[in-house]
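From the pipeline queue, job 12 of 40. The input is one protein chain; the requested action is below.

Action: predict structure.
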Amino acid sequence: MEVRTLRYFMAVAEELHFGRAAARLHMTQPPLSRAIRRLEADLGATLLHRSPAGVTLTPAGSALLDEARSLLDQVERARVRVAAAAGAATLTVGILGDSTDPGATRLAATYRRLHPGVEVRVREADLTDPTCGLRAGLVDVALTRGPFDETGLTVHELRADPVGAVLRADDPLVRRDQLKLADLAGRRWFRFPVGTDALWRSYWNGGEPREGPVVRAVQECVQAVLWNGTVGMTPLGHDLPGQLAVVPVTDMAPSRVVVATREGDTNTNPLIRSFVRIARTAYRG
């Protein structure tokens, strides 16, 4: 039973879909299917029920998933300890948005507990770069939000948050329990600068070209609403000044919290690989 085969199995068991697991592993589906069948033959047990709708775990598969996670955690800890002993234990993390996110708090606590010898450096990015410096080579991994151009990157979704419109507390729309994007037509929105990732700009403007002030940071967004009555979007649950209110927007796709790395980095850097695995677990918690 090889570590690589356990990684293959864990990807299928977590995705419950061979196609998605193959994409996650950057391989084609046939060799992945063959590897899982060889593993089943080696163990003498059926691990997965396969159907046109997808994949479900058998009791034997559930048991192996628990053991595989434990074994792979030990492998990662060993690799990270070796990196620390070799003097290469520094990880730079790019962060966008609310650093008090409970998922991020759990991630920091767990990573510190498992890898106390790793120095984690945090670089906070403004809203003009959703990759938080990842493309520019300023960070090793980004804890951020989508959508953005994922070319050359590997991106894992950790959570999806509903969003709402940020309005002044005296705005008539605040009396509504919920809004649709059409309710905000004709209003001035805060916008990101020209040159910002096109998918990112479009998402936060509700998929339409908008007019309004250009902003680069969260506080600039807040001030644009306070001073000018500008409209903007925010994930629900963020703390805002008392003069502002958030009304859920029901026809806008949720904001995806993601962890992103450059393609191939999780294969060559145990610190990055471990960070991604711990992040996916922490955000499930």
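Job complete. The mean pLDDT is 89.
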